[in-house]
Amino acid sequence: MNRELRADASGEFHAASQAQPNIALVKYWGKRDAALNLPAVGSISITLDSLWTRTDVRFVPGQKGDRVSLNGRSDEAESRRITACLDLLRQRAAVDWGADVASRNNFPTAAGLASSASGFAALVHAGARALGLQLSDAEQSVLARRCSGSAARSIFGGYVEWAHGRLADGTDSVAQPLLAAESWPLRVAVAITSKAAKQVGSSEGMRRTAQTSPYQSAWVDTQEADLTTARNAILARDFEALALISEYSCLKMHALAMAAQPGLLYWNGATMECMHRVRALRQQGLPVFFTVDAGPQLKAVCEPSAIEEVKAALRDVPGVLDVLDTGLGAGARAISPDAVEA
Ligand code: ADP
Ligand code: DP6
Ligand code: CO
User: Which CATH architecture has domain 13-181?
Assistant: First the structure.
């Protein structure tokens, strides 16, 4: 690559970024190409605002290998995944410098709250800037996707769609905004039912599902219709329609994964109890629906007017440890390195 790499004002290849997790309303589950991390299906999500990852990246010319701290600790498997992501950036910049990375999540990691989404969106955003790569949002989304599929969506804020894509090289399997957060400012109550890391991570869960679940082809075949329904509901701000399609996609994904061998059980008893509670609230006329990702936390999405009642109802469910409250937020962005303190 014929481009001069330029250090920042203090002579360093250094940047810090923040990204927020997103929760899928029409779920991504399954890959058609594991090496490029191309999804078996398109997906639609909302980016949150009060949960975040903050990541500081410093490339050090001449350094061999990366030094990684995630939430103040260093774990071999997590570091390997971060190095693989940095390798994509190093390749783009044609350098082989090691990096010092410090990252922190303000919510439980690897527990079904999309830490891989905010984590790799923040890493790509900061790493690209540290290397002076001037990447468009779409290019960052493609790189983030290769590190964790859901991270493609956290480059953007609000309502976001990640396209299945058609090209063999995956450059069109990219996320793009559908609607700004401010245009339909729904709120989300997150019921935390366990802070432990899940036993089967999302990547492994998808692999097992595709290999063994008899419902895999039905899942893939029905996704396009769900995407159309959800997209239309979002563009029309039709809460009831979005509620129905989101709960449907969530339960369909979990049914698919439960039918793997051995079956994947991402819920605990409290997760199930929260689903019943949300359904009961909706039957009483409250504008709220649930979704659950690969983990035991329940996300209740509601109109702003309903948030206090939803939070109170979820807090009341036995086994709920905590209820977080968040709005919809922005995409990945630059922050001051002082804000990271990992
Ligand atoms: P989640 O439901 O939290 O997304 P996943 O199984 O998809 O769970 O991914 C969790 C993994 O994502 C972690 O084990 C770690 O490898 C990676 N990860 C989480 N947070 C970060 C971060 N801030 N920076 C880089 N990688 C991260
Ligand atoms: C259930 O993006 O974490 O949250 O691409 O293997 O890193 P990898 O998986 P990941 O999977 C997220 C799955 C989900 C649904 C979704 O976010 O669409
Ligand atoms: Co994830």
Answer: 2-Layer Sandwich (3.30)
Instruction: Check if 332 has its Cβ closer than 6 Å to any atom of ligand 2.
Output: no
pLDDT tens digits for range 242-288: 999 999 999 999 999 999 999 999 999 999 999 999 999 999 999 99
Superfamily of domain 187-326, CATH level 4:
GHMP kinase, C-terminal domain (3.30.70.890)
Q: Do domains 13-181 and 187-326 have the same CATH topology?
A: no
Type of residue at 228: T
85 CB near ligand 2 (under 6 Å): no
For ligand 2, atom 14, which residue shows the shortest CA distance?
Answer: 293
- Provide the residue ranges of all domains of the chain, joining segments of one domain with +: 13-181, 187-326
Q: Give phi and psi for 251, each to the nearest 5.
A: -70, -35
pLDDT at 9: 66
Pocket mutation for ligand 2, best pick of 38, 113, 202, 258 (most atoms within 8 Å of C-beta): 202
Q: Are strands 53-60 and 98-105 parallel, antiparallel or unpaired?
A: antiparallel
Q: What is the CA(23)–ligand 3 centre distance, in A?
A: 10
- Residue 81 CB less than 6 A away from ligand 1: yes
Kindly report the number of other CB atoms within 10 A of residue 323's CB atom. 20
CA 315 – ligand 1 centroid, Å: 26
Q: Give the span between the Cα atoms of 310 and 325, in whole angstroms.
A: 10
pTM above 0.90, yes or no: yes
Ligand 2 pocket test target in 27, 28, 164, 207 with most atoms within 8 Å of CB: 28
Distance 148 CA to ligand 3 centre (A): 7
